[in-house]
Specification:
Belongs to the FAD-dependent glycerol-3-phosphate dehydrogenase family. The chain has 451 residues and is α+β, with helices and mostly antiparallel strands. It is 41% helix and 13% strand. The strands form 4 sheets. Strands 2, 3, 4, 5, 6 and 7 form a 6-stranded antiparallel beta sheet that branches. The protein has a 3-stranded mixed beta sheet with strand order 1-9-8, with helices on both faces. Strands 10-11 form a two-stranded antiparallel ribbon.
């Protein structure tokens, strides 16, 4: 029987090829490609930018994605690893480059980076051509003497063409007898595509009682399988929406998607928050905040013990910190010289303590929400709250410490930072506190003093 084996392992291509023949030359040159996600207001909903030939040969793009903005990318030689991670230098490169394509009055801030990750791009040289052939971003198909069929290179967006070319090569090399004379991949819809329509989400709203934003996202993500997802949604206990409890208040992901993901063989929390929901790619802080709810549902579905659930939470936190950019410091503490006078430090410590009403030693996102609401901002959206937090939370732990606040004020003083909404909020909170104290003072006539 003719041997028919496929090697489709991206950056691990050569390690598999050398199992087949240890003497062959490598054809894959792994390259690190970092992407960052920014708030949606950086790009119009139906408009993006792509420059395929910048001055140094890299590709720069700036595109709307999932109501956010995705930007990239870097292109640096790297080692093959199962856990690629972005670096601060790569993030700064992207931020620096995209500034050239925006209006000068638009300030691209490091604090606006909601998530960052690195992928390994498998650039290839064709073993069928001479050694002077440059590395290519397109794909190649190679068949070894033992009929190991390797498909290498390419992109996510060309997966159908890659599959077709691979099968065509297998048919020819192994003298296969296909049922059809030509590939039918262009006619096949992916799972969930058969009954999908642009207005299908309306039925999810009308028939199941999902809120509109959730229904739209579920329909786009699951196609006609969205109805199976909706049937797993729990009751909210509210007049509206009837079903579908969000796992995070700022994002349209619901509990039913966790249960459905488990039915589709999701076995760990990292898989759920990254590949099933994509929440970690959109906002790493929100993914961390949603993690306990995600793990509670998965523990119920998969019968995890208390220890196993904690193990899953710890692994997911490590993934968010290392692979999704949460631990990459935006401003190293030793890069900012705190040049405040003792009087200024005293003033800012007082403001910080006013915001930290519970005397926790740090300012939480709830403290920020309360402060903004107190001086007329009303209900501030979760996205806005995270933006305020991220501009000052340099160690990315979801809270503001005193030293971070002092660094921010120092940067404002030296002109490194032009404006901080957190700093303005702290100033207004101090003014409000002073006004309240003035009202509480006992007047002379009430105290019995005077004539």
């Amino acid at each position: 029987m003719t041997r028919k084996e496929f090697n489709a392992t991206a950056p691990f291509t050569d390690s598999i090829r050398k199992m087949d023949d240890p003497t062959i030359k490598s054809i894959c040159a792994p390259s690190s490609g970092v992407h960052i996600v920014l708030p949606g207001y950086y790009s119009p909903e139906q408009m993006g930018l792509l420059d395929p030939s910048t001055s140094d040969g890299r590709v720069i793009f700036f595109l709307p994605w999932q109501r956010h903005t995705i930007a990239g990318t870097t292109d640096l030689p790297c080692e093959v690893t199962h856990n690629p991670a972005p670096s601060e230098d790569e993030i700064q490169f992207i931020l620096s480059e995209i500034k050239h394509y925006l209006n000068q009055d638009v300030e691209v801030r490091r604090g606006d980076v909601l998530s960052a990750w690195s992928g390994i791009r498998p650039l290839v040289s064709d073993p069928n051509k001479d050694e002077t052939q440059a590395l290519a971003r397109n794909h190649i198909v190679h068949i070894s003497a033992s009929n190991l069929i390797t498909i290498a290179g390419g992109k996510w967006t060309t997966y159908r063409a890659m599959a077709e070319h691979t099968i065509d090569a297998a048919v020819k090399a192994c003298d296969l007898q296909p049922e059809r004379p030509e590939s039918v991949t262009t006619l096949l819809k992916i799972e969930g595509g058969q009954g999908w329509s642009p207005t299908m989400y309306i039925r999810l709203v009308q028939d199941f009682g999902l809120e509109c934003e959730v229904a739209q996202r579920v329909a786009k993500s699951y196609g006609d399988r969205a109805f199976a997802v909706a049937k797993m949604a729990s009751l909210t206990g509210k007049r509206w929406p009837v079903i579908g409890n969000r796992i995070h208040p700022d994002f349209p992901y619901i509990d039913a998607e966790i249960r459905y993901g488990v039915r589709e063989y999701a076995c760990n929390a990292v898989d759920m928050i990254a590949r099933r929901l994509r929440l970690s790619f959109l906002n790493v802080q929100a993914a961390q905040e949603a993690l306990p709810v995600v793990c509670d549902i998965m523990a119920e579905e998969l019968k995890w013990s208390k220890d196993e659930k904690q193990k899953q939470i710890n692994k997911a936190r490590e993934f968010l910190a290392l692979e999704m950019g949460q631990a990459v410091k935006r401003i190293a503490k030793d890069q900012v010289h705190v040049n405040l006078s003792s009087e200024e430090v005293k003033k800012y410590v007082k403001r910080f303590e006013i915001i930290d009403k519970d005397k926790k030693g740090y300012v939480s996102i709830n403290d920020i929400r309360r402060a903004l609401k107190s001086y007329g901002d009303g209900d501030v959206s979760g996205e806005q709250l995270h933006e305020i937090l991220k501009e000052i939370d340099t160690n990315m732990n979801g809270q503001v410490e005193l030293d971070e606040y002092l660094q921010m004020m120092s940067a404002i003083k030296t002109g490194e930072v032009s404006y901080s909404r957190f700093a303005r909020m702290a100033e207004l909170e101090e003014q409000k506190e002073e006004a309240a104290q003035f009202k509480r003072k006992i007047t002379v006539d009430r105290s019995g003093g005077g004539l």
